[in-house]
Automatic annotation (TrEMBL):
Protein name from the UniProt record: Phage tail protein
Top-level taxon in the UniProt lineage: Bacteria
Amino acid sequence: GASKLILHFNMNIGSCPAVQFCVNYKNGGISYRSARDDFGFELDWTEFYTTTRKPSAGDVGALPVSGGVINGNLGIGTPNILGGSSIVLGDNDTGLKQNGDGLLDIYANGVQVFRFQNDTLESKKSINVTGRLTPTDYGNFDSRYVQDFRLGSYESGQAWMG
């Protein structure tokens, strides 16, 4: 038996005078090609995608689920106006942007509000804390910041005696 069947339709008029369909054995796929004017079939067969012959991510220019590279910015649910290597979330000017080697910035309403670097964190706005801040380095908690203040002493005239 034949492993494929080619169906040829010839109208012999217009800018597409003929079309061919190629059907492969056992639902192995359907392809087509069309002729142009008097030039005949210039291009190779083009496959139809079906529910049983689905395209790969590469076939349609998409990223595979396993990952890939996006060249340019990315907007999730919105266009991205931050530019460069950035991801916006929710609206077009709030998100993350890589602004140089080792620099990751956070933007809100188009304004940089925070920066992560390999050796420092930098806030461009006030920080409000409702919990406790616990430092791991007490090196800057010394007499440079607290001077002329005594507890547990009594007042004697204009001088504090302790």
